[in-house]
Amino acid sequence: MTPAAWRVVDRWIPLEEPLVMGILNVTPDSFSDGGELRDVDDALRRGEAMVQEGAGILDVGGESTRPGAAEVSLEEELRRVIPVVEALRRELRSPVSVDTRKAGVARRALEAGAVVVNDVSGLAFDSEMASVVARAGAGLVLMHMRGTPADMRSLARYDDPVDEVSRELLQAVERARAAGVSDDALVLDPGIGFAKNRSQSLYLLAELRRLVALGFPVMVGTSRKSFLGELLDRPPEERVLGSAVTCALAWERGARIFRVHDVEATVQALTVVRAVVGASSAGDPPAPDGVVHSGASSPLRTDEDNSR
Fold it and tell me: What is the pTM of this model?
């Protein structure tokens, strides 16, 4: 059963409803939106818009992890990320996550007000990361990836992607526990598109309930990914609908956190799927038009209510 809330630095984030994580890439070379946010003011405006559209948390990243991307120096990543985290925490009430593999970046971001570390390496890149998270009492997203962005495509070999991803994520959980990170701070991410080809990514989405059964909240990051481009034959900026559909399917399979570029479309898709799932699980069939169920306080509907 998925936990009802996620413990981060200064609060519990409820997970009974979908948590949409808005992506703020302050990078010149991310696969979809690299270079769009030129300075802190751009990032702040985008963050404000995302919160208004329904984002419950903002994820700031200063290093591209697209396939083939080169590593960014610690100093450069700090230069890109920390002013944005500081501005978001100063101007907005939304919690902030930092998307980084580096303990040095995570430490400074947490000091600047971030409450979550989103580690795409699942604690495999920097041996100090888990200790930094534990000392701060931060939330931690453990994403599955093999290798690095430079070589991960060559490592997309699985007999059963769900079994192997689950096993390797549980190894990351053990690394976190050994450093003192509590289970209620952990979120698992299957790493769609990271060391996975199109068929493996689709299989992980289809079988997501098996990952949810591990007992941790699950985050999915399908937004504008290349497997959607292959399916739809569209560039990243035209994969919004496909991305929203995958989030709706993932919610129905038990995911509760959705890392996306396009917040409004995702919120709409999740609103619809929750209404459909809720109608199916309500038990009683719906009342005919114009009839109010016993105990309802709303007035009877009239023909005028149905006019267009």
Answer: 0.89
